[in-house]
Amino acid sequence: MAKTTGLKQCSHWAALLCMLVVLVAPGVAQAGMTIDIVGGGASQLPIAITPFRQPGETGLDPAQIVRADLERSGLFSLVDGAGLGAPGEAQTAPFPQWRARKADALVVGQVGTLPDGRLDIRFRLYDVVRQSQLAGFSYAVAPAKARAIGHKIADIVYEKLIGVPGNFSGRIAFVLKHQGRYELQVADADGYNNVAIMRSPEPVISPVWSPDGSRLAYVSFERKKPVVFVQDLASGRRKAVANFRGSNSAPAWSPDGKKLVLALSKDASSQIYRIDAEGGSAERLTKGGALDTEPAFSPDGNWLYFTSDRGGSPQIYRMRSAGGAASRVTFDGAYNVSPNLSPDGQRLTFIHQDSGGFHVAVMELATGQVQTLTDNPQDESPHFAPNGRSILYATRLGSREVLATVSVDGKIKQRLSLTGDLREPVWAP
Amino acid sequence: MKRLSLVSVLFASVLLAACGTSQTKAPIEDHGAPTAVTPAPVPATPSGPQVETHGLAPGAADQSQSLAGQGPSGIEGVNAADAAKLKDSNNILSKRIVYFDFDKFAIKPDYRALIEAHAQFLKSHGQAKVVLQGNADERGSREYNMALGQRRADSVKQAMSVLGAKDEQMETISFGEEKPAAEGHDEAAWQQNRRTEIRYQGE
Prior knowledge:
Order of helices and strands of chain B: EHEEEHEHEHEHE
Distance between the termini of chain A: 26 Å
Largest sheet of chain A: 5 strands, antiparallel
Number of strands of chain A: 31
Oligomer: heterodimer
Helix content of chain B: 25-40%
Number of helices of chain B: 5
Strand order of the largest sheet of chain B: 5-8-6-7
Number of strands of chain B: 8
Number of domains of chain A: 2
Strand content of chain A: 35-45%
CATH architecture of the largest domain in chain A: 6 Propeller
Shape of chain A: globular
Radius of gyration of chain A: 23 Å
Strand order of the largest sheet of chain A: 2-30-29-28-27
Number of helices of chain A: 4
Radius of gyration of chain B: 25 Å
CATH class of the largest domain in chain A: Mainly Beta
Structural class of chain A: mainly beta
Helix content of chain A: 10-25%
CATH topology of the largest domain in chain A: Neuraminidase
Distance between the termini of chain B: 54 Å
Shape of chain B: globular
Largest interface: A-B, 107 and 77 residues
């Protein structure tokens, strides 16, 4: 569907009005999302990102997005380019000027307008020391996509300089609780472009993306009991796929997107079952009197990790994804819950309780070695980013619930907050 | 600590959008999600819980679903006089909440009389049904707390079953930590939240 710039602008003006209300009467309306960077890497790569040259008024400068993304990663320090202007996407850059300011890398770019109204966004990434180009691309896109291109450029720069793909183009889903109502929201990885895909007066928990990113499964209490729904993101259509007698919760998608594994109480307190992602009968995978919940697949689909109190305290176990005997995975401490596997299948993140509270921990599955990454008292719901380099989780800041990320080495932390309580975050695949 | 505020980004985009008015006649394709400042305004809620969903595809229709609330039809198989006992503060049947210790689901002796009274009521009113709603305090995993709340509901059901209530009269569900009775973040609040509530259907 075509959308005019006029309409687009209306939404911006609505946003501005909303901000003005906030400035005049704080606490009445909504403030914007804020991101706090709590820590930084030991060695940060100095990079200069010049403003993209814009001959016309084409809107947002993608360089702003690239700068914000890279700075937020904690792995880069931004070199001040004051007085050096916007050189644009030139095939030769004035390397000595940037070298003098101690930049190791340089991003230059420009934005032009094509006859059909689309933008022509170009950038080049240079190694300043070697005076050579590391990457260079051009994009022809609708003006509304300028922000997305900024994230894409940040992904490329990150991958070229750090060696693994960036997460900046990704999306997240989370639950917002505000004034007694609940919204399931989908947003860009930086919290921008957030949209409520479902609103309810009753609690919503445990959203999880289908492997192709087209659907979300979640638990809604709107029928006065927990019921698992699957919602198509594009159309907004949804279906109650698990509404058995008792409680229905903790959905996890099989890697092929055809099945859901979840916790049901129809036969015993909380057991793990498999159903078709379209709904239907449930096949029981765990048996016994213990509580079994929070199933999570290994990326190859062969294993299910889950939380169980069968040993007397809640711990993480794993079993074959078809069910059967389970072996215990966590041993340290009396409360280890909420398993999630890294995309390469080599690490497990979970919540570990010690004397200081509930923290995000990571286990190297090959060695069993565990590292606790956070020191907040009430961390919940850890999930790996698609590149496996950071973990998104929910935490508390005073009495407020906010989202946070931590790098897998525990060194880089950021928080993302909004008016209202944010919880149950999960990365899109 | 560095602090990047998206407010400033928004302001910047507003200004840039304003600058762009003169040259934009051609319609612009928007394949992405609509820009929104959150939470978006929420329409007034009609009677009963209302749930809305929103499609991300351009042109996807918003869908809403209005769910009828519980009617004042009364409890099946229970006459008005007996139904009144359930609300009479001098009658133990008006007591509906069983509290639990941290990470425990065993029923404490204090609640024996309460459970016996409700089991007897169900036994003498074979058509009446209850939902046993288990709850947990906020500490730890939301989903593990769902399981813990479920077990707290199940242990009340089991006790009532032994005392003569039929299984089909009792559905057990869990609200986990999602429906706290007290909103605080200390033991005083938590002990009020570790509970099972007995609700009669049609009440």
